[in-house]
Every structure is written in C-alpha cells, then in structure tokens.
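User: Let's play a game. I give you a shape written as tokens, and you guess the letters that built it. Ready? Here's round one.
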C-alpha cells in the first residue's frame, strides 16, 4: 500500500472545499441567498465560466491527493523490516498522466513533432553529420515520419474529435432526460425548451461550453499518448503536463491567499467602523502605512525571510515536494496578510452606515453588548461585500503569483506554475528561431482561468451588490432565439 501524504496546502484546499459545500447547503435552505444565486444562474457568461472553473478545480483536486509509492523490499532485508517508500511524492494526477510525465526528451521539440528542434551531431553511415535527431517518445511508432506523420495526426485527430462528439451528444441527451424527468415533460418538449433556451438557467450555453471541452479532451486524449501535443521545454519535459500541474498552484494561491485576507480585514474593518474614535484612527494608520509600502517589495522581503528559514532547516522536510509546498503555503499566507487593507476599507465604510440603523440603535437601547451587535447585526449584513471582493480578488492573486515568479521571488523553482513557465520562456524569446510554444501554453491557460474567474465574479457582483445595474447586463446575456 502506498503511503498517503498530506501536504499543508492539500489540507487547506480540502477544508476550503468543505466550507464551500457547507455554504452551498446553507444557500439552498436560505430563500434570500437562493434568490441571489439564481440571478447568477441566469447570467450566461457567469455560468459558462463556472463550467470552466469546475474543470480547473477538478484538476487541482486530483493534483492534491498525494502519496509515496511502496518500494520493493531489499533482498537482504529481514522479514519484519519496516516498509520503505519512495523519496518522491506523486499525486493522483501524476498517476493518471504517467506517460507524459515520464516521456522526457533531450531538449526542445515543437508541438506534435517527431524530431528535436535543434540539430545535433550524429553518426550516419560511419560519417558524422548534423541533423535533427528523432524524439525518444514523440512519434516513435512511426517508421517513416516524413511520409506517415500528416496522415497519422489527421487520422488520430478525427478519432479523438469523433469520440468527443459522441460524448457531447451523450451529454445533451442526459440533459434532455434530466429536464424531462424534473419538469414532468416529454423528451421532445424538453428538447424544445433547451433548444430555444426557455429555462431559468442558460443550459444551452453551458452545454455548448461542455461540448467544446469534450471535443478538446477527445482530441488531446487521441494524440497525447503518442505525441507531445504542446511540445517540450529545454529539459525535454512535456508542456501540456506542466500547464495542467500549474492549475493547482493557481487554485491554491488564489483560495489560500483569499482565506488569509479575511480574518484581519473582517476584524479591523468592523472595529474601525463600529467603535470609531481612536480605534478608527489607529486602524486607519496601520493600513495606510501598509498601503504606502510597494506590495512587491514587501512580499519579496517576506519571501526572502521564508527562503532563509527553509534553507537553514533542511532536516524538517522529508521530500523536495514538501519543502516546495511549505514555501507555497507561506507565500499564499503572506499575500493574504499583506492584502487585507482594501477589504478593510470597504467594511469600515459599510459598518459606518450600518451602525446608525434603527435596529442597531434599538439593540444598544436594550443593552445588547457591542460584540453581540457586531455578530448578529453587522457581520451578516457585510458578508455580501466579503463574497464579492473575495471572488474579484481571486484572479488578481493568481496574476500576482505569476508576476512574483517572473521576477524570481514567487514559488519554489521546483514548483510548476504559470509564473515559472512564463519566466523560463523569457530567455527563449531572444532565440532565433523563437521558442514560442512554452510561453503561449502558460499564457493561454492562465488567460482562460483568470478570464473565467473574472466573468464569474462579475455575475456574483451583479447579483449581490444592491447598487449594481442588473437590467442592462441581463439584456446583454440573453441568448438569441
């Protein structure tokens, strides 16, 4: 049996997932929350983005189930010897992607290539020549790549797209059957509702998004076992595998940093807005000073302190992944602890207004304590601001990690992230010819993730912010008949 490994970020990520599931259960039972989220559900862009975000979160969860493989016992080991485990820690995603993880080439190769990108010296007929060597894994099933490559790629692409189309049709049929069973309709009537998008949720747009994902998945699944779909980097590692591994880093960074922001922002924002006076002046002074320091310099200083601690205590960490993970955990915590000022300002202003409401004044007249008033009357009425800001800041924290890793003060160099991918591709742009696929893969994956989060955040803001103008947006998001 392998040894299950619980990294700090794994524990936090699954705790956040449990909290979100608890919030979903509460929102389903609360009529006000259910009505607000129904507004998000009618937003076409937000729900299509939610489909993409669910895929990213699923990848991150698969990459957060870690284990260490059991090593076979040595020939000279006694029968009652303790089991030995591998020194490298893998995840369930690594297990599913064993072939692209282990298919390491010598150096660069373009997407779907059969030869290396650079020429190398080789012996041919007893003569030393310089040519493009064959890849060890990419396209090795082809006997004559010059003649067979185009037809093989076209045939396998057609097979993958056909499989994706079949899965897409199955998805549409399941949606029609579910709508018919839930609404007590016939399948034909449910299909007409779905076809004309006459439902509360934009099912048609969501199903189209899911269909596009299934087509892409089918194409990749048909080609990836035999080719490097997005090429390889300087050390011969598969680019698509690195892009998928970067998803977990982005999800952990955004969620953990957002979670670390909330305690200080909630506590100090409510205290400043409720008590006012010298309490407000002191808290304003603290976050004004914090805001006056360039965030990149402050974070870089904290990261260097963390790096010094990690380097001076190598015996604390069993594997290299645990060492890199603790740096990721502390970096996300630092981003949260240094980024609470903006949310605290908003909560302070909202608490100013709520503290003068009649129900708060009545509670004071009846002798309710200050902490009781803040817990019962102030906090529930500012949670919509916390939700909006948290969702909006998530994508900003992902981008901030990419910037920090680009300048060399982000995650550990052994941790794969969008920032490290873009940073490693920086010097490749000066080559002739240009190595473009590494930068393009990291940029596109990060763009899709951040854009989906921004669109979903915009839908949440329209639903929960009472000052938002919802009518124009709802009109824009209506699908044509």
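Assistant: Ready! My guess for every position:
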């Amino acid at each position: 049996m392998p040894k299950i490994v619980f990294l700090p970020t794994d524990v936090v990520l699954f705790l956040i997932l449990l909290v979100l599931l608890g919030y979903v259960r509460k929102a389903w039972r609360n009529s006000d929350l259910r009505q607000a989220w129904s507004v998000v559900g009618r937003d076409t862009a937000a729900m299509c983005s939610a489909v993409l975000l669910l895929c990213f979160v699923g990848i991150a969860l698969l990459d957060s189930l870690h284990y260490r493989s059991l090593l076979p016992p040595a020939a000279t080991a006694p029968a009652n010897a303790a089991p030995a485990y591998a020194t490298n820690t893998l995840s369930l995603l690594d297990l599913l992607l064993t072939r692209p993880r282990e298919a390491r080439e010598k150096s660069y190769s373009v997407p779907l290539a059969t030869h290396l990108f650079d020429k190398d010296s080789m012996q041919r007929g007893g003569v030393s020549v310089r040519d493009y060597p064959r890849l060890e894994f990419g396209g090795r099933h082809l006997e004559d790549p010059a003649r067979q490559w185009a037809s093989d790629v076209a045939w396998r692409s057609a097979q993958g797209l056909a499989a994706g189309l079949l899965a897409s049709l199955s998805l549409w049929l399941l949606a029609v059957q579910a709508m018919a069973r839930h609404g007590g309709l016939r399948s034909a009537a449910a299909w007409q509702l779905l076809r004309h998008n006459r439902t509360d949720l934009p099912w048609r747009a969501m199903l189209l998004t899911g269909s596009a994902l299934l087509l892409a998945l089918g194409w990749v699944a048909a080609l990836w076992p035999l080719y490097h779909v997005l090429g390889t980097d300087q050390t011969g590692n598969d680019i698509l595998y690195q892009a998928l591994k970067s998803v977990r880093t982005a999800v952990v960074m955004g969620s953990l940093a957002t979670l670390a922001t909330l305690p200080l922002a909630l506590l100090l924002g409510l205290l400043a807005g409720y008590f006012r006076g010298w309490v407000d002046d002191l808290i304003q002074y603290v976050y004004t000073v914090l805001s006056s320091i360039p965030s990149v310099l402050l974070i870089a200083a904290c990261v260097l302190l963390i790096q010094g601690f990690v380097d001076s205590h190598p015996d604390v960490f069993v594997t290299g992944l645990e060492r890199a993970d603790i740096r990721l955990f502390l970096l996300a915590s630092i981003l949260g602890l240094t980024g609470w000022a903006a949310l605290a300002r908003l909560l302070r202003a909202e608490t100013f207004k709520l503290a003068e409401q009649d129900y708060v004044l009545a509670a004071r007249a009846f002798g309710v304590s200050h902490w009781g008033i803040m817990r019962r009357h102030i906090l529930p009425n500012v949670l919509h601001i916390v939700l909006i800001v948290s969702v909006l800041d998530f994508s900003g924290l992902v981008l901030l990690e990419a910037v920090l890793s680009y300048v060399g003060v982000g995650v550990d160099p052994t941790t794969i992230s969008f920032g490290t991918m873009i940073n490693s591709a920086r010097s490749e742009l000066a080559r002739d010819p240009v190595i473009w696929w590494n930068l393009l893969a990291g940029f596109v994956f990060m763009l899709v993730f951040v854009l989906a989060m921004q669109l979903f955040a915009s839908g949440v803001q329209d639903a929960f912010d009472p000052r938002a103008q919802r009518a124009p947006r709802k009109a824009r998001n209506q699908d044509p008949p």
